[in-house]
Write a structure and sequence with these properties.
The chain is of the alpha/beta class. The chain has 2 domains: 149 residues, Enolase-like, N-terminal domain (Enolase-like, domain 1); 233 residues, TIM Barrel, CATH 3.20.20. The protein is 35% helix and 22% strand. The strands form 5 sheets. Strands 7-8-9-10-11-12-13 form a 7-stranded parallel beta sheet. A 4-stranded antiparallel beta sheet has the order 4-3-2-17, with helices on both faces. It has a two-stranded antiparallel ribbon with strand order 1-5. Helix 9 links the parallel strand 9 and strand 10. Helix 3 crosses helix 5. The structure holds 2-succinylbenzoate and magnesium ion. Magnesium ion binds next to loops.
């Protein structure tokens, strides 16, 4: 580990202090959503997640594993992530002194896949690291924004008038971009109605992999709606068909599910599979990997933005820090805490609020810059385990 650290010049540039991890706690929580959230792959009313905390030298870092209860968005679930974290990721950290959270990813190299499990624990190490340096997580990552642009993701509704009303409400709250979930049969007519009522707004559509290349003609019809982007129209693992589709569309394709690593991002850009990338630290294995994708996109002038996974306040705080990096140039799926959860279910203080200009401030206190409300966390905990390292 040390040799690896010494061969990485970025680590030398930091105020080098070894962090000796003392204990780790893992819990599974469940929160009820304010209203059901429906995408092309399913409808959900509750959010399960894992919350991880790491302790060292009187400090505590927090992370959130965004795997859900079912393997719809990705193959990971809270149960698989629990097993991977407990049986492989924590043991790999035992006895290790970390100089920088970038060291976590290589220490888990033997574990193939399971990016959400890795990300949850790695986020906690990043928060701890930033706190040990007495700087904000945003700054530790290299972020320079004091506020980020906020967009809202609107799920599939029972009819078009309800959707139009939700858009109206979101715009009046200040959200800077509306993203609508679409699927075959809930697409052209919906977007046509939205464009009739809201001809100028920044609008995007996210299919969560609900189409195939055989639907290319239908997807081509979306070009007339002047969408900012079309997110993940085709297979969750596909790059080639997206490249084919992108050649036929005027609308920029943005990839979400298909980009699971910096290598995927390189391949997608090389193939022309997309013109925009949605970065989620959970999907790509953590903040170090997310930053690597940001860096390579920035070098090629590819815009990125931060996606969301219905996070609690802990994951939301991580997303804000990530989105403060300079390449996050489009509105993010980071909305106010009250968008998904009742105020009494927000796990951090202060809650995230939307400023009147449609932005959310990036906290500047040490680490995540928000206080985790541990009694509340306790109340929503289903299961918990601790390790002394
Ligand atoms: O595809 O971006 C997605 C939520 C769960 C799973 C996948 C996605 C989403 C969202 C919600 O769109 C974004 C948010 O957290 O606000
Ligand atoms: Mg998406």
């Amino acid at each position: 580990m040390l040799l690896q650290a010494l061969s990485n010049p970025r680590i030398i540039a930091y105020n080098v202090a070894m962090i000796k991890l003392e204990s780790i706690s893992l819990r599974e929580i469940e929160l009820s959503l304010l209203r059901p959230f429906e995408t092309s792959f399913g409808r959900q009313q509750r959010r399960r997640a894992l919350i991880i905390s790491v302790q060292a030298e009187g400090l505590r870092g927090w992370g959130e594993c965004v795997a859900g209860s079912d393997p719809w968005y990705s193959y990971e679930t809270t149960r698989t992530a629990w097993q991977i974290i407990a049986d492989y990721l924590i043991p790999a950290l035992a006895g290790l002194s970390l100089e920088h959270p970038d060291e976590a990813w290589p220490s888990w190299a033997r574990v193939r896949g399971h990016p959400m499990a890795k990300a949850g624990l790695e986020q906690a190490l990043w928060d701890l690291y930033a706190k040990s340096q007495d700087i904000s997580l945003a700054r530790a990552l290299g972020g320079d924004k004091t506020e980020i642009e906020s967009g809202i993701s609107i799920g599939i509704q029972s009819d078009i008038p309800i959707t139009l009303k939700l858009i109206e409400e979101s715009l009046s709250q200040g959200y800077r971009r509306i993203k609508l979930k679409i699927k075959p049969g809930w697409d052209v007519q919906l977007l046509a109605a939205v464009r009739t009522d809201f001809p100028k707004i920044r609008l995007t559509a996210d299919a969560n992999a609900a189409y195939t290349l055989a639907d290319a003609a239908r997807l081509k019809e979306l070009d007339r709606f002047d969408l900012l982007m079309l997110e993940q129209p085709l297979g969750y693992d596909d790059l080639l068909d997206h490249a084919d589709l992108q050649r036929r569309l005027k609308t920029p394709i943005c990839l979400d599910e298909s980009i699971k690593s910096p290598a995927d991002a390189c391949r997608a850009l090389e193939l022309g599979s997309c013109r925009i990338i949605n970065i989620k630290s959970g999907r790509v294995g953590g903040l170090s990997q997310a930053k690597a994708i940001h860096d390579l996109c920035r070098a090629q002038d590819i815009p990125v933005w931060c996606g969301g996974m219905l996070e609690t306040g802990i994951g939301r705080a991580h997303n804000l820090a990530l989105a403060s990096l300079p390449g996050f140039s489009l509105p993010n799926d980071i909305s106010a805490s009250e968008r998904y959860y009742l105020p009494e279910l927000e796990l951090v203080e202060p809650p995230f609020e939307l400023d009147t200009n449609g932005t959310i401030s990036v906290p500047d206190g040490p680490g995540l810059g928000v206080r985790v409300l541990e009694e509340r966390l306790e109340r929503v905990t289903l299961k918990r385990q601790e390790w002394q390292l």
